[in-house]
Write a structure and sequence with these properties.
single chain; 344 residues; alpha+beta; six-stranded mixed beta sheet; five-stranded antiparallel beta sheet; 3 helices; 21 strands; elongated
Length: 344
């Protein structure tokens, strides 16, 4: 067995005493206070909106805090002060009447203006009169006007013409983006943008380029879109914007429709004509028109009035004519009767 370790007087070596002291210091050291921060809500705002400088992790032992406009804590730049224990608000020389302070240290700006843009400093004084400060920033932008989109031509021929779209805006320092049919435009190798993105050129135009185009201007606080401009792409040999095959199909369909209408009209006309002819034949069959007679009326008919061998005789007249002929023949076969003397 190894001999027991011989300790110096006191039972500990010097480096062990040092290690124990450091360990105890680490064990009993209180946690570090969270850092105070200031956040702008929203991060960027448009003129006329409300913005909050929100404070995070305000120390619990804060006795008083003050807001200053700018990166300094000069008295003439003081906006407002707040005494925590008595909840007293003390406006400063830089207070405009649009600022509201809250017990958690946050500062609200109402109806913000472009002049409110810049840095703001929060000064914190604890109950031991120790002073700390933190800075926040407001970013205010002018409201954007609607941009205008102009096209060099809205009807172009595929694989022949080019098109240039120009986005115009009255607002400086804005970003310009492009939309196609309501979605972000995906640039093709046939498309080029100017350096500031205000001009879009498509060379040459293809059929898949047909649709609605818009430009959008934006800054960190606002964005606006132009009215859509519709691009129609026609095809070589066609001025209607439709493919040649579609035009031929439409033409054939129209011609077939006209042919069907004409055929139906002819059938209806023939049907009506056939009905009229049938009624006329039936009327002549039932009610024949009387034939004009010449000379005095006689009880007997002459041989000339009889129908010839080639004349068509209606069936209903045949017995009458036959009877008349038999009567005439019987008269021709009789001998003349003597005339009575009293009639002479």
């Amino acid at each position: 067995m190894e001999p027991p370790l011989v300790l110096p007087r006191g039972g500990r070596v010097p480096w062990q005493d040092l290690l124990l002291a450091v360990s105890l210091l680490t064990l009993w050291n209180p946690p570090t206070t969270a850092q105070v921060t200031v956040e702008s809500v929203p991060p960027s705002a448009t003129e006329g909106k409300d913005v909050l400088l929100q404070v995070h992790n305000l120390p619990r032992d804060t006795g008083r805090f003050s807001w200053f406009k700018g990166a300094t804590t000069e008295e003439n730049r003081r906006i407002v002060s707040y005494i925590v224990d008595v909840r007293v608000i003390i406006p400063g020389p830089a207070h405009s009447g649009r600022e509201t302070v809250y017990p958690n240290g946050s500062l609200l700006f109402r109806n913000i203006t472009l002049n409110d843009t810049g840095y703001y400093t929060l000064q914190i004084v604890d109950r031991n009169y120790e002073v700390a400060q933190v800075t926040g920033r407001l970013r205010i932008f002018q409201p954007l006007a609607q941009p205008t989109l102009h096209a060099s031509n809205t009807t172009v021929t595929e694989d022949k013409d080019s098109m240039v779209l120009t986005c115009s805006t009255s607002n400086p320092e804005v970003s310009i983006g492009w939309l196609f049919n309501g979605q972000s435009l995906k640039l093709m190798e046939r498309m080029t943008l100017s350096q500031d993105n205000s001009t879009l050129t498509i060379r040459p135009v293809r059929k898949e380029d047909a649709g609605n185009y818009q430009c959008e201007v934006s800054n960190p606080g606002d964005s606006r879109k132009s009215d859509p401009v519709m691009l129609a792409v026609s095809y070589e040999g066609s001025t209607t914007g439709f493919p040649v095959g579609s035009i031929v199909g439409i033409t054939v369909g129209v011609l077939v429709g006209l042919a069907l209408v004409a055929t139906l009209g002819c059938l209806l006309l023939r049907t009506r004509t056939g009905r009229a002819s049938g009624w006329r034949d039936l009327r002549e069959l039932c009610c024949p028109a009387p034939k004009p007679r010449h000379g005095p009326t006689s009880s007997s008919k002459s041989q000339d009035s009889l129908p010839g061998p080639t004349t068509a005789i209606p069936i209903y007249q045949f017995p009458q004519v036959l009877g008349a002929a038999e009567t005439q023949d019987s008269r021709w076969g009789q001998e003349p009767q003597p005339v009575p003397e009293n009639q002479l």
